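S.,

Sequence below, as promised.
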Amino acid sequence: MFPGRLPIRRESAQQVLDGPRLTCRRLRFMLGEVGNPPFGYPRVSPYLLYEDAPRLIEYLERAFGFQTRSAETGGAGRTHFELLYGDDGLVMVGQAGPGFSSPLTLGTYPASLTHVYVEGVDALHERARAAGAEVTDLELSSAGDRRFTATDPEGQVWVFAERVGIPAE
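The prediction came back faster than expected:
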């Protein structure tokens, strides 16, 4: 389903110049310099392991609108995926295997929570329900977030939120 390496979306120099702002990182990219973190990557990204990674990626795309940026098979024969949510929401997904167990295999719940800020949380909640996702009701947190949680088919818990108010004191 994801043979070999799919192309990674990269910006041309003109796309960078036409972008919303010219940052030092973007300028280094234009000049061909190596950055840390590399251009297009946040400093911290969750990396989730799944027993059936391709199935979960289809689920995340259908239910929540993630897009696959890249997929490649590494030297150990495991597939590595990069998913984007919006312009800057990167989640890395790997195929579980020997030495790399998923929460499902380990029997841990929840293994972690992945928190995603979105625009239009109500519409996303409806989209997820329509796609058959296991979601909670919408709620308003004391931090001022309208949010819901979703448990994916392998037990990872996702929190989708939109800041709609100021935090309670």
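The radius of gyration is 18 Å.

Coffee later?
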